[in-house]
């Protein structure tokens, strides 16, 4: 590879990293996203209020999402002790260090950057916009990406080092394997795989040191376990049987979900078949040799993680096959894609074919960048509206809702000056009152139901959903919000979405204007009555 080609490949390696940093920086807001309130702030409140060490430890190890994310809570507590505050931008920055750790592992795997084509694809995949939810939410970066990055670091240290592990490597392994099950539950797969690998392939008894740690970890999970919302694993497998097999390939091919609907499902299924079968055949053939140890450990870890997701989350939050296509599940599809490229490049020496695969990876990244930009904007809008509503004491604390924050916990953190984004609130209010255009609008209010809610297994919100619609001409380059006002002049702020358009139409800018704005609102979870007035707030951006 001549020097010009090397420079070009290094540009392809660095550019995704720069785009990643810029995108995360742009949309980072010091306010929880979705269940970050439940994952981060609420456990911290319980921990902070606890008056005994035993109670504090109990809240540190409280189960959540079939895992015990004690590492996430410990990081939050440490940040608060060091700075006196909880800042979600700081937590997100810390979480993204694990994204860079994952990239560093691949840099080392590819001979310290010598295999540039493979390293470029790893960079394009790891810093892919497709994974926006995994890298723009501090809870997911700290409990999911940390689990994957630390696991891959462990696999690298086991597979790419001398027969007898040195002291420094043993210390790193010990620390990583001790905390891994408390980043995410799939950390158990890593410690079991590590013990088996050490027992089978190493002239080292280090696995005996890990065994008591593993037993303690299992005991902690059993002790702190909470009742599951679902039936047992065997019951779920019997109920869904062939659907779980189809869903496995759909999840594994998730990065190819370019189109929505059934077309997208077919594409992901076909891609998933290849992404799982090809490495399975190659790695099985090499099982008797010392070749591909790292790749084998990665493949087994990814497939076990996929299996865990399927039995815990299939048909749970969403109905049917789409339930396994959440953005933060696509990280496993992306890891499989990298693995396939890694194995493919070992068989194929043609630079032309390598360039073709590189173009495919670049194309996927560009497509996902265009597709996920609106999702990031919507995520930021949800944060802003929720912040204003809870600051104005409009959350109805008597209504139990999975996604809504607790007004009482917010007020507690605010009174202690532990969490209160005053500057952000002031800026948003200033923009609304001074720079945004506000227009009273004729609106339609209709009660809606969604059949998918009836088909999924999660205990969805019992509150009625109301669709608010406003007709007009709305520029898609602007952000829109509804200010919903009741007869007592109380108001809440919600996002106002323009009519959806396809990915192709968005690229062509075929419909620069929308004929209506809509939003579905659970009015019952707010301290507000039926709206008597709706104002449309038009602005560039609050973020």
Order of helices and strands: HHHHHHHHHHHHHHHHHHHEEHEEEEHEE
How do the strands of the widest beta sheet line up side by side? 1-8-4-5
Largest sheet: 4 strands, antiparallel
Q: Ends: how far apart?
A: 44 Å
Please report which band the strand proportion falls in: under 5%, 5-15%, 15-25%, 25-35%, 35-45% or over 45%. 5-15%
Low-confidence parts lasting 5 or more residues at pLDDT below 50?
A: none
Overall pLDDT, averaged? 87
Number of helices: 21
Shape: globular
**SS class:** alpha+beta
Radius of gyration: 24 Å
Number of strands: 8
| Helix share, percent | 55-70%
Oligomer: single chain
Question: What can you see in these coordinates?
Answer:
Helix content is 60%, strand content 9%. With 543 residues, the chain is of the alpha+beta class. The strands form two sheets. The chain has a four-stranded antiparallel beta sheet with strand order 1-8-4-5. It has a four-stranded antiparallel beta sheet with strand order 2-3-7-6, with no helix packed on it. A hairpin with a 5-residue loop joins strand 4 (479-485) and strand 5. Helix 2 (36-49) crosses helix 4 (70-83) and helix 10 (187-201) runs antiparallel to helix 11. The longest helix has 41 residues, at 351-391.
């Amino acid at each position: 590879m001549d020097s010009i080609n090397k420079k070009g490949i290094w540009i392809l390696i660095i550019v995704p990293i720069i785009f990643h940093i810029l995108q995360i920086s742009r949309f980072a807001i010091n306010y929880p996203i979705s269940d970050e309130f439940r994952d981060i702030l609420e456990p911290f409140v319980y921990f902070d209020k606890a008056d005994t060490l035993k109670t504090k430890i109990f809240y540190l190890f409280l189960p959540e999402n079939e895992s015990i994310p004690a590492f996430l809570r410990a990081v939050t507590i440490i940040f608060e002790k060091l700075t006196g505050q909880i800042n979600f931008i700081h937590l997100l920055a810390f979480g993204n260090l694990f994204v860079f750790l994952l990239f560093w592992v691949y840099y080392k795997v590819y001979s310290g950057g010598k295999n540039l084509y493979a390293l470029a694809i790893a960079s394009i995949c790891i810093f892919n916009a497709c994974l926006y939810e995994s890298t723009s939410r501090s809870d997911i970066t700290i409990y999911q990406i940390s689990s994957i990055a630390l696991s891959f670091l462990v696999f690298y240290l086991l597979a790419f080092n001398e027969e007898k592990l040195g002291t420094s490597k043993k210390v790193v392994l010990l620390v990583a394997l001790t905390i891994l099950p408390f980043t995410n539950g799939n950390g158990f797969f890593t410690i079991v795989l590590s013990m088996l690998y050490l027992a089978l392939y190493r002239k080292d008894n280090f696995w005996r040191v890990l065994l008591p740690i593993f037993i303690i970890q299992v005991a902690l999970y059993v002790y702190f376990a909470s009742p599951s919302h679902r039936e047992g694993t065997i019951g779920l497998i019997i109920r869904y049987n062939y659907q779980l097999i189809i869903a496995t390939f759909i999840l594994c091919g998730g990065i190819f979900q370019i189109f929505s609907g059934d077309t997208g499902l077919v594409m992901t299924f076909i891609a998933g078949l290849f992404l799982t079968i090809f490495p399975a055949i190659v790695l099985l053939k090499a099982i008797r040799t010392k070749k591909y140890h790292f790749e084998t450990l990665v493949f087994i870890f990814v497939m076990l993680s996929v299996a865990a997701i399927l039995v815990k989350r299939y048909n749970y939050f969403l109905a049917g096959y789409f339930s396994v296509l959440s953005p933060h599940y696509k990280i496993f599809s992306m890891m499989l894609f990298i693995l396939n490229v890694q194995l493919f490049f070992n068989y194929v020496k043609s630079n032309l074919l390598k360039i073709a695969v590189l173009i495919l990876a670049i194309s996927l990244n560009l497509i996902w960048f265009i597709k996920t930009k609106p999702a990031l904007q919507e995520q930021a809008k949800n944060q802003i509206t929720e912040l204003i509503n809870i600051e104005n004491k409009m959350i109805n604390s008597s209504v139990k809702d999975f996604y809504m924050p607790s007004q009482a916990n917010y007020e507690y953190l605010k009174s202690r000056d532990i969490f209160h984004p005053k500057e952000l609130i002031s800026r948003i209010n200033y923009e609304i009152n001074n720079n945004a255009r506000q227009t009273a609008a004729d609106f339609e209010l209709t009660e809606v139901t969604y059949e998918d809610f009836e088909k999924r297994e999660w205990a969805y919100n019992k509150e009625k959903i109301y669709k608010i619609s406003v007709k007009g001409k709305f520029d898609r380059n602007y952000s829109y919000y509804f200010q919903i006002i009741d007869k007592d002049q109380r108001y809440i702020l919600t996002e106002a979405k323009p009519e959806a358009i396809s990915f192709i139409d968005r690229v062509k800018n075929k419909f620069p204007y929308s004929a209506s704005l809509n939003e579905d609102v659970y009015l019952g979870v707010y301290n507000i009555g039926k709206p008597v007035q709706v104002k449309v707030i038009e602005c560039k951006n609050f973020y």
